[in-house]
Amino acid sequence: MELSLVIEKFILITGIFAVSLVVAMYSTLAERKVAGYLQDRVGPNRAGWGGIFQPLADGIKMFLKEEIIPAQASKFLFIAGPSLAILTACIGSAVIPWGSNIRIGDRVVDLQVTDINVGILYIFGVVSLGVYGIMIGGWASNNKFSLMGAIRAASQNISYEIAMGLSIIAFLMVTGSLSLRTITEQQHGFWANGWFTWYAFQQPLGFLIFLVCAFAETNRTPFDLPECETELVGGYHTEYSSMKLGFYLFAEYINMFVSSAVMATLYFGGYNYPGMDWVNATLGPLWGPLIGVAVLLLKIFFFIFFFMWVRWTIPRFRYDQLMNLGWKVLIPLAIANIVLTGVWITAKHTLENSVSIF
Fold first, then answer.
1. Contacts of 125 (CB under 8 A, 6+ apart)
2. CA angle, corner 241, sides to 80 and 78, nearest 5?
3. H or E element in which residue 195 lies
4. Angle between helix 331-357 and 144-175 (nearest 10)
5. pLDDT digit string (tens) for 197-254?
6. How many folded domains does the chain comprise?
């Protein structure tokens, strides 16, 4: 492998990691500001102009808080739990194409860490590993409330991963590929051949199922049963303090960022936007793709806002309601979506063949 390619990938990985942390950090401020607006109050406004330095103050507070490990806890696993949670949260962005290729001189820079032909399966694998961080932390705490929250998280993630996987089967029938780069290129622009190219218009039911499951996989309200304060004190991270607690909180916001990026890439064209070809031809091979990166980030920020909006407007489910929704509603809907997609594809091909014959 060329040294220049290694340096290029290192810079890209470092940049994505830094952006993920900054977005997660300021999502905490955005969450409190959105909550303040929806509840007709101000929100944080003391640390800097409009509270702009509040995340930094919170981070410093986390670092300076006393580290407490319960006497009866399994020390190694107690530390391994939040470490695994933050690790799995950060590696999910490796297969996301953040923009089209940028030409700098004679070199073409790919704004994607790696393009594997099973990118969606990679993301599913990372998501399934993330629950181990929660399970390990809840069990190692030697606290019944933490263990109960960890068990809830495991059963919830397993239940909703099934519906999410079934929604992706119908999606695969339409795209014919699991590579996120290929899927993004198939949605080039916005309109082609008399049809919307973005898959949210071709798979509306699949997108709705995927969206609901994304809320459940990230443990966001109304699916925050693993950490609901009114029942479980604090859930699986009840015994955690200092940056170990910070890792769990950061992992949740990074997962929200990555989930938003995945939904924007799969269903809303990723870095594609209307008039993209004209912009690329006008502004050149550097600024055109950079605008695509900005467009993708705007789509991601919209989904992050939607996550926050739902949290402060919809009450938490009871646990039996959560399970009923996953097993009795979403899974049958996902199976029905597969059948409907198969019928639609068959009818489409039959019509195209009939037109070609005449």
1. none
2. 20
3. strand 195-196
4. 10
5. 899 999 999 999 999 999 998 888 888 877 766 565 667 888 898 889 889 988 989 9
6. 1
- Return the exposure string of 197-216: e unless at least 16 CB atoms fall within 10 Å of the residue's CB, then b: bbbbebbeebbebbbbbbbb
Helix residue ranges per DSSP H, 39-93 = 54-64, 75-91
331 belongs to a structural domain:
yes
In-domain check, residue 41: no
- Residue 339: what pLDDT? 95
Instruction: Please tell me whether residue 109 adopts helix, strand or coil conformation.
Output: strand
Cβ neighbours for 210, distance < 8 A, ≥ 6 positions apart: 164, 167, 168, 171, 263, 266, 267
Is residue 140 included in any domain, yes or no?
yes
In degrees to the nearest 10, what's the CA dihedral of 133, 136, 142, 148?
70
Q: 63 near 242, Cβ under 8 Å?
A: yes
Q: What values do phi and psi take at 112, rounded to 5? A: -155, 130
- What CA–CA distance (Å, rounded) separates 224 from 330? 18
Q: What is the largest CA-CA distance in the chain?
A: 80
Q: Does residue 337 sit within a domain?
A: yes
β-pair type (107-109, 191-192)? unpaired
Domain hosting 156: range is 62-357
Task: List the structure tokens of 199.
Answer: 């898959």
Q: For residue 298, what are its two tokens?
A: 């705007």
What number of helices (H) and strands (E) belong to the chain? 13, 4
* Burial annotation 14-41 (CB, 10 A radius, 16+ → b, else e): eebeeebbebbbbbbbbbbbbebeeeee
